[in-house]
């Protein structure tokens, strides 16, 4: 007689206990204040937060709050339908035109999140028998988009353009799509985009760049990773998110006009979802203006990055080589990373510990993210506390 299958309820309890034992269980913290370096938690305690992606400090900017209020007064709080039904307003249309012009593309299409953009774009461009070539450290949304497309997925070692070239040469797929983060969210490094574009041109492939962490920060006036390298091509498809440096919510895809028209007709995560509230489109129009005018913010952010890197000269833990606001401090062991995060928390500093599967096994780290809203004094406090903790670590 076959053994009785375990009760799924019991299995969940066991599996959660295993996550605890491995130092991999995740829990939410409840914030009781707006997104800003000075954070108040639900219990009334305060922290200096080094964990948001609000790189330019726009999430609580008074100009954006005013734009949101005016947008709500004009539009209400919901769009009421999908964009292709009745949920597309002049505010949405103006935002797409502004984003296309700002990033240097013919047209743009807005999505409610970056995740929805990536899982919509990739299946619309490639399918069975085609091929996707993806950096091994790409964001989960790019991995899921590739899997949903049902194209053959080829993953190349992080940043290894030579390996990618060999994969492309060996492929006989009729349609090829190269996908990469512009700035990698856990390492903070910038993809070798000029060489990726060269390969896309040589092999007649699309190049989709997820610039969630580059838009607003890199390039002239914050126009992103492609502008940082001065890249233009009809083979480029650019995805930027609007809840990080832009400080609001949503995402967009920019490309040549016929690509955007195709996505409007074929991207399921665009077609089959309610449009974002138009008040957010009005707010984002103001946010793009602040990004464009934000050279002083970016200069201050750059100075903070350099100050952190100059100060964190440690013996056992090490900063990864990043010039972006994402500054990963690799600890190694899951439990030690959690212990350091707890010690920082007790010192009034909020820095998250990132563990597998988000990062490779053995590379648990503190993901320090800096914002133009941070002060020099706050960064110095973080540096001195980390140096003290590492000095007392076993």
The total of helices stands at 14
Beta-strand share of residues: 15-25%
Low-confidence stretches: none
CATH architecture assignment of the largest domain: 3-Layer(aba) Sandwich
The total domain count is: 2
Give the structural class.
alpha/beta
Helix content: 40-55%
- Give the SSE order as H and E letters: HEEHHEHEHEHEHEHEEHHHHEEHEEEH
Shape call: globular
CATH topology value of the largest domain: Aspartate Aminotransferase, domain 2
Kindly report the spatial arrangement of strands forming the biggest sheet.
Answer: 3-9-8-7-6-4-5
The first-level CATH class name of the largest domain: Alpha Beta
Span between termini = 53 Å
Spell out the CATH superfamily of the largest domain. Type I PLP-dependent aspartate aminotransferase-like (Major domain)
Summarize model confidence as the mean pLDDT. 96
What is the radius of gyration computed over CA atoms, rounded to a whole number of angstroms? 22 Å
The number of E-state strands comes to 14
Characterize the largest beta sheet: strand count, sense, and whether it forms a barrel: 7 strands, mixed
